[in-house]
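Students often ask why we bother encoding 3D structure as a string. The short answer is that it lets us treat folding as translation between two languages. Here is a chain of 287 residues written in the first language.
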Amino acid sequence: MTEITGHPISADSTEYTLEELLIARMAREFRGDAMGVGATILGDLSARLAKALHVPDLFLTTVSRAAADCDVHAKSLSDEWVLSSTARMGLDWEQMFQLIAQGRLQIWVGAVQIDRHGNSNISVIGSWDKPRIQLVGARGVPDDLWGCARLCYHIRKHTPKSFVDKVDFICSFGDGSDYENQTNRPARPGVVVSDLGVFDLDPTTKSMKIVSLHPGVSLEEVQSRTEFVWQKTAGDIPVTAAPTATELQCIREIIDPLGLRRLESVEGSEAVTLELWNEDLVKTASN
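And here it is in the second language, the structure alphabet:
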């Protein structure tokens, strides 16, 4: 089996990394006349790629939302300053939640756990009363839940601890009984992307199913790195489509020439962060 995580792979003589494959695939989920947000680095880059190539009316913002409706810029570790140079407006949090309530938010959430029904968790590992690990908390996920049409998820490392039979704490509802029991229907779970493949929810079984596997990944590997059992698929499982030459050029030369996508690869480390930080400072100073 070919190991692709973080290393160049080839399709039609065009080499690309796993991170570039994920950015291109995630970008295809955005639609126009709405706000595009990524809670992970690759999610953020996918929104920029979508605006640059596929959805010109996608609405971009900085993390704080203080700079909004920005042009496409190269990603920086000082994004707040860089993107504010072309921001056409700023958003306070009341305005932000008004946009969410109007169904104008599209987001890639970086979940820590997701289960077979699409319930997600970014709050605690273990019981709520006495957790083994305290995470960031539910944060804006419950608010997003009631305004978005769906929530998409980017899970950096596919393991039995991230793809679980049942999440330890529900921050957003999946497509099961918890969802059906809600008076006001929340967002449905959308596409889930990991380092092994692309997944979504089967509306009939209300369980997660495989949409595609990345090049070199087998069903056996996905099953060994998942706590629940995947439902059987009819026929061969598709391979995730490779990024186009245009997408690769845009990623490498326009939206991420610094290579911040490396921070969410297997080589991501404090040393790589420091290296990129120094490069970013030098580039910012020269401009």
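Translate back mentally: Residues 1-7 have pLDDT under 50 and may be disordered. Keep this in mind for the problem set.
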